[in-house]
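Re: that backbone. Tokens:
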């Protein structure tokens, strides 16, 4: 199988896919960041994995040149997700499948602080991304691009306080302050409340991820 990993980052998933398809197959990782592509190339891999600098909405590949396309935690960053989905459709062979895996950041729940500030801070976090609702929108994104047999599997991930704070909540506070959703004092109070909840062993954080799969119909035009 020929597999394309869109938004491959440092290439770990592309290397894992290359192992699955074996040397008779091929896995190409593309990323719009030259830093990511350089690092992916530096980390290397078997001869049938390669890394290419390209944006998701202008893939430098011919029509029908892959059997499967995947994009993990990428569509949330795209201003034009429909254009990227159309490109995934174009480069897929008929009958091939695309997988989009993304968070929907408005499913982020945090227990431990007051409701009003929590809502404002977490909404600011979701809104700071180009496509913070990627998760819920994947079903329609794939359908509009021409995919059929579209199926979405939602699931939730929980994070302990340290990881939640380092990966999400610190950013959320900064996004909320920058957008004016909360003032500095309110933000500090929010963090204090969460720390206190953590101290009592009552902090809880979770968010939703959505895995959407669609098929390019067997008899479709590229
Ligand atoms: C959160 S990382 C995910 C990396 C990898 N897919 C993973 O799951 O570990 C998002 C990646 O998408 C890339 N990206 C963002 N916008 C892109 C675009 N328009 N076209 C291609 N890649 C893009 C970023 O450079 C980054 O490497």
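Recovered sequence:
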């Amino acid at each position: 199988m020929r597999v394309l990993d869109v938004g491959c980052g440092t290439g770990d998933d592309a290397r894992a896919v290359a192992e699955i398809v074996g040397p008779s197959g091929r896995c190409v990782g593309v990323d719009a960041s030259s830093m990511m592509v350089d690092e992916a190339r530096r980390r290397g891999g078997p001869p049938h994995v390669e890394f290419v600098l390209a944006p998701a909405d202008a893939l430098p590949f011919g029509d029908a040149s892959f059997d499967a396309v995947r994009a993990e935690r990428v569509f949330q960053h795209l201003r034009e997700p429909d254009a990227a989905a159309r490109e995934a459709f174009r480069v897929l062979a008929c009958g091939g499948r695309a997988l989009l895996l993304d968070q929907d950041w408005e499913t982020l729940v945090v227990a431990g602080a007051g409701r009003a500030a929590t809502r404002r801070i977490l909404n600011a976090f979701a809104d700071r991304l180009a496509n913070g609702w990627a998760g819920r929108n994947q079903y329609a994104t794939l359908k509009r691009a021409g995919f059929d047999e579209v199926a979405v599997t939602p699931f939730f991930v929980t994070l302990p306080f340290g990881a939640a704070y380092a990966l999400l909540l610190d950013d959320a506070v900064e996004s909320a302050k920058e957008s004016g959703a909360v003032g500095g004092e309110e933000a500090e109070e929010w963090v204090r409340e969460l720390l206190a909840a953590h101290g009592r062993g009552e902090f809880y954080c979770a968010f939703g991820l959505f895995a959407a799969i669609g098929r390019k119909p067997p008899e479709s035009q590229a």
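The longest strand covers residues 92-111. The chain has a mean pLDDT of 97.
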